[in-house]
Structures are given as structure tokens and as C-alpha cells.
Specification:
Layout lengths: L1 E9 L2 E7 L10 H8 L9 E6 L6 E7 L9 H13 L6 E6 L2 E8 L3 E5 L6 E3 L4 E5 L3 E6 L8 H9 L10 E9 L4 E8 L4 E3 L3 H14 L5 E9 L2 E9 L5 E9 L1 E9 L1
Parallel strand pairs: 2-3, 4-5, 10-11, 12-14
Antiparallel strand pairs: 1-2, 1-17, 3-4, 5-6, 6-7, 7-16, 8-9, 9-10, 11-12, 12-13, 14-15, 15-16
């Protein structure tokens, strides 16, 4: 079996993308997806995206983490598959696509930059002064710490997966260091479930972290822009805070770039 694919990355969060409009890819083959995502024996990526036909939108996005299993929404993956669709003539300046958490809109800004509208967030739980939990299309813990560059992200993230409330289903864990509250700038590192490792960037994690930053610091309602420095580059999150529990018009913004096309025999 020969598979044609494209490789894309968004601030270092990388994906295999396959045009599956004919619905031929065996997406239930967990071992195949794991092999394709393997960085030593396959193509290498944090996850795999299928572009499929949709009745109500320009296309449908199907996503699996590198563990081979279908996962929840992937923000950077959504921006990458939008860029893939545009490169292949399936989208123009704006596109709408179907994902596991609903319909998303993507806009193309200055070539490589893609802005993706995320789902509204209507619940943010505060566990203590430093730890929050929310769902930005995927479930996330947001943990405010000092010196993210020295923090044991992988060890702590893996330990959290074994806690009774997360065991079996897992949760993404974001470690946040505030650069400046006044300018809404933060450093972020993310441990991703399904990848079971730190990734250079996580779009839903950046979204969750931004929302929790606004809640933690009791920022007034209104429109806000948060700058995030990930391990792979800079992202921005634009949103409208309606209340401490309601955040709408959320946009994840940053570069989404084509890396290469290829074909692999499996």
C-alpha cells in the first residue's frame, strides 16, 4: 500500500496530512498510524490529519495523536489542515471545516499565518491559586509556575496521567510563566496526552492557557489579545471575555507552514 502525504508544522507542532476525500485511508488501523508518526521508523509527527468530505462545510478534519488513536480537537492541526486545503485549491481567503467539536472558521493572513476560530468556553474550574482546568476543544490543566525553562514538564505531565481522575482518559498539561500581566505575555510548555511527551507547541493548550490567564488575574470583560511564547515559536490568542466563565470569539493565530510532500509504502 502506497500513501501520499504532506507534512506541515505550526510553531514546531508537526503533522502528517492525507487527502482522504475518497475515504480510503484505514483510520481504524492504530498500528499503521503509530508507524507513520514514528520518528525513527516512519515519517515522524505529533499526529495525523485526514482531510475528508463534509456535507455542510468545505471539508472535514479527522485527527489522531501519534499513539494512533482518534483524539479531540487539535488547534495547530486545524490551522495546518486549513493551510493544506488552501494550497490544494480547496479553500480561498476564508474556509469553514468540520471537526470533532463542531464547525471551525479559518482565515489566511499574510501568506503563512492562519487564524482559527476555536469553540466558545463556558466553564473554567479553579483548583487552587495556581492550577486551573478547562476544555478548549480538548481537556487541559493549566499550571502557573516559575521558570518554565527549568520545569520538569515531562515527569510532572506523566505523573498527572496516573492520577485517579485522569487515569485512562488522560489530560493535557500546560505549564505557564507570566512574562507580564499588563501586556498579557506568557511562556508556555505543554505535555500532550496521546503523544505522551512534551510537544513544541499546542494550539488548544495555548487557548486554554490564555483563558485561564484572564480568569486568574481578574481581567475585566472585553476583547483581549494574549501573546504566547511556545518552545516552537510565538502564538497569539484573541478572545472576548463575557464573564469569568464565558469566553467567546476565540481565535488562535500564528504560522502554519508546508514542509514537504512525500509517498511512503507500508
Amino acid at each position: 500500500m502506497r500513501i501520499k502525504f504532506s507534512k506541515y508544522q505550526a510553531t514546531g507542532n508537526d503533522f502528517i496530512i492525507i487527502d482522504d476525500r475518497e475515504n480510503e485511508f484505514p483510520k481504524d488501523n492504530i498500528n499503521l498510524i503509530k508507524k507513520l508518526c514514528d520518528r525513527r521508523f516512519g515519517i515522524g509527527s505529533d499526529g495525523l490529519l485526514l482531510l475528508q468530505k463534509s456535507i455542510d462545510s468545505d471539508f472535514k478534519m479527522w485527527y489522531a495523536n501519534s499513539d494512533g488513536r482518534q483524539s479531540s480537537m487539535c488547534g495547530n492541526g486545524g490551522r495546518c489542515i486549513a493551510a493544506f486545503a488552501k494550497k490544494n485549491g480547496l479553500a480561498e481567503s476564508i474556509t469553514k471545516f468540520e471537526a470533532i467539536d463542531g464547525i471551525h472558521e479559518a482565515k489566511f493572513i499574510n501568506g503563512k499565518n492562519v487564524e482559527l476560530k476555536m469553540c466558545d468556553i463556558e466553564e473554567v474550574s479553579q483548583i487552587n491559586n495556581s492550577i486551573f482546568e478547562t476544555n478548549s476543544g480538548s481537556p487541559h490543566l493549566v499550571w502557573f509556575v516559575n521558570e518554565t525553562d527549568k520545569y520538569p514538564v515531562i515527569e510532572t505531565g506523566r505523573n498527572i496521567q496516573s492520577m485517579p481522575e485522569y487515569k485512562g482518559k488522560g489530560i493535557n498539561v500546560n505549564f505557564i510563566e507570566e512574562q507580564s500581566v499588563d501586556s498579557f505575555a506568557i511562556n508556555i510548555r505543554t505535555y500532550e496526552r496521546g503523544v505522551e511527551d512534551e510537544t513544541l507547541s499546542c494550539g488548544t493548550g495555548a487557548t486554554a492557557a490564555s483563558i485561564c490567564l484572564l480568569k486568574k488575574n481578574n481581567i475585566p470583560n472585553g476583547n483581549h489579545v494574549i501573546k504566547l511564547q511556545t518552545m516552537g515559536g510565538e502564538l497569539q490568542v484573541k478572545c472576548e471575555k463575557k464573564s469569568d466563565k464565558s469566553f467567546q470569539n476565540i481565535w488562535l493565530c500564528g504560522a502554519a507552514e508546508f514542509v514537504f510532500d512525500g509517498e511512503i509504502e507500508v
